[in-house]
Amino acid sequence: MVILRERDKDSCASALVLWDPALISYFFVSDTTQIPRYNPKEAPLCKDFYRMFLSLVLCVGILLGSSAASSIQSRFSSFAGEYGSGGGTAFSFSSEQLNGPITGLRVRENPSHVIGLQFRYGNTWGTYYGNTAGPILEFLLLPGENITQVSGKTAAYVNELMFVTSHGRIFRFGQPSGTSFNDFPLYQTTALRYVSGRYSSVIHSIGFHWGYQPGCVHCKTEE
């Protein structure tokens, strides 16, 4: 409930506002045609206050919608943990996903291990983590193609990675030695959103975060 106490009909200088959360619910569950309109002849509401109040209602609605979207995303996200050993420095591509879905990857390898990783989100390459020595292998995904499975082998470090896409393509890096792992999304129609793990001059460990592909927030177009 909202109550106004004014000195006179033309001033909002002295207003007492009592907030009732049920009022917000009323605005969202009712037909928009039922939202009360400001009429100075029928109520002594101050026009500036009324505008401020409706702006507040709109902001609350946006926050509730964002919260609901986050709840749906987290409900259909999955993460099985990291494969490999500890040590090194933690890394994560979680912030890069604001640029759009994964559209490419770059990997460095030596004769024994995977030593560096980089992912492209939308048209933007994310941060590179790992050793910068030697040639880098690059693969770009096709429009609408997603990574739907990752397998590999680990020992003290990540020795091998194999990415499988929704189009049946396979990208393999490193050497097939060590303990095998196979990671895939828990929910159908979800795909790889980002990767996290630990690195130094090699990749110590790696984990895969699955979910619905996020919308593009900071997209950049090709120049």
UniProtKB/TrEMBL annotation:
Keywords: Lectin, Membrane, Signal, Transmembrane, Transmembrane helix. Gene3D superfamilies: Jacalin-like lectin domain (2.100.10.30). Pfam families: Jacalin. CDD domains: Jacalin_ZG16_like. InterPro entries: Jacalin-like_lectin_dom, Jacalin-like_lectin_dom_sf, PolyBind_ProtTraffic. The chain crosses the membrane at residues 12-29, 49-69. The keyword Transmembrane helix applies. GO terms for molecular function: carbohydrate binding. The keyword Signal applies. Residues 77-212 form the Jacalin-type lectin domain. SUPFAM superfamilies: Mannose-binding lectins. It comes from the Eukaryota. PANTHER family: JACALIN-TYPE LECTIN DOMAIN-CONTAINING PROTEIN, OS11G0524900 PROTEIN. This is Zymogen granule membrane protein 16 isoform X1. It comes from Xenopus laevis.
